[in-house]
Request: fold
Amino acid sequence: MSAVDPPWKELEARLQRGEFDEEGLADAVDRAGLAEEAGAPARLIDYLSAAWNLLRQDPGVALARARIAEAVAERLDAAPVLRAELSRRRSAAHFVRGETRASGEAARRGLALLSADVAREDPFVAESRSALLSLLANASLADGRREEALVALEEAIALARRHSLRGHLGIALTGLGNARLAAGAPTAAAPYYEEALELARERSDPGAVAVNLGNLGLVHQAHGRLRAAEDAFEEALGQARRAGDRQGEASLEANLGALLLERGALEAAQRRLEASLRLSRTLGDARTATAALVRLASVLRERGALPEASRALDAAGRTRAEGAPADDASLLSARGELCLARREASAAGRCFARALEAARAAHDPRGECSALLGIGRARLAEDDLAEALAALDAARTLADEVEEVALAAEIETARADALARRG
Reply:
């Protein structure tokens, strides 16, 4: 069996066009006789290896191959460890494409095949289980299930330390940093990223170096250290390109665009965000594409191009991945900002109120803080000073709790305006 075998390639193409559900794929595998052709189950890994290397360059191919291999493995009644490995690869491909719910489901399927007791004693099982736990944690964080993520990461780190799996330890430490950052604690997140970065440099792994440098850039940005953040993002972008990590490249371009927007460099921000959007669309990465479109809408709004900003937000709404409440919150807040720019204060207030609900559902304190600021500004535009100050006071308290320096400055500006009007 080779990676260019026509029956497999035809199925790959049809899967990428969305022609099969799981039952339809199983039937297609049977009709093509792929289980018989596969022979020994171990050859499934050979078939997948090229796609695994291309995971962040062509995640659509990686996902199609993982789905085909899962169906064949089921027909062959392959060993649980092999089937868990295939679930791991499918989970990773879904995650790179921004399909966090599907990524979590695949990770749970894989974990159900691997005993936690066996993993404590068997290094091979431990490696697979640790990787699946980190994938589950990433998906759970993206979907707002932080407690599930923390439980998974605790076990992943314990397994990695027990069996000296330094690569998997770095991945789990990054996940723990992500959990702290998502909870609005960038100072607490930084040591995990720094330890993971040190491990990545020891292993000469440019992809992991890029991930952790980028995350440290987000920590700098949250603390208002914009020059340090830009340097970290730029270095991370170079490492991602060195690793051939196109998904990481798209994400870092979006981060640089957001940073340049914060600094008021609108033309440069637009270039970065358009580059991120082109690449993420090529990869089928819905999450990064949505983030780029929302930020691009902000750039266009700041430049006075309100119809173009509205179209960008409409595109973001069509692009967003299912089951991503944090994406909903950012999109709704962006719609609120656009309404304010149009002097539609009442409509803006409704958008920000919905954004607040979505941010709370996602356990996203930064999104919550941003929505409260928006509510305050909308009430201020309606001359409802008491409601404006109540929202802004709540936003300021939360901004201090989650170390959001830039947001705190915006809130103080709005509060000063409200207090001046009140006299």
Notes: The mean pLDDT is 89. Residues 123-142 form the longest helix (20 residues). The CA atoms of residues 349 and 421 lie 19 Å apart.
